[in-house]
Amino acid sequence: MSTISEAMVDFDGPMPRVVADLRSVSFDVEFVRDDIEGQYSESDLDEAYQLVMSNQITGDDFRELIGENRYHAQTLFFDDVLVFLFPSDRYDAVFASFDYDDDFPVSELVDRVVETQATE
Question: Using an 8 Å Cβ cutoff, are 16 and 96 in contact?
Fold first, then answer.
């Protein structure tokens, strides 16, 4: 499990739904909350992986376009689910999803990951 994934699982806040380490050609689901387990098939996970990784490449291109050295996270807000993509290398990332409501500590979670990356 990557240090970013560990930070997601150990975050002092809402428990994640799913945490996965994403690599250029594979992924490892590192954590699944008990009430989510069995909800997604291998095919669902593989399709999600393909979509997320294609978005990751686009994110790097956009970062370069606007002249930033690095972005800390990409987020996807849905009605009841919040997804974070934390880049670790050009084609590697950590996927973490959480139940979402207006009180979700977005900044605190991103700060935790930035701190974790700074100590690597």
Answer: yes
| Bridge partners of residue 62, in order along the sequence | none
Q: 98, exposed or middle or buried, with CB in 10 Å at 0-12, 13-18, 19+?
A: buried
3-state class of 107 per DSSP?
helix
The tokens for 24 are 């250029």
Q: Which residue has the tokens 């990751």?
A: 56
Q: Tokens for 29?
A: 């689901």
Tens-place pLDDT, residues 30-70: 999 999 999 989 899 999 888 887 776 556 666 677 776 66
Please report, to the nearest 10 degrees, the dihedral formed by the alpha carbons of residues 9, 11, 13, 18 taken in order. Answer: -30
Where is mean pLDDT largest: 17-31, 42-56, 89-103? 17-31
First to last CA, the chain: 14
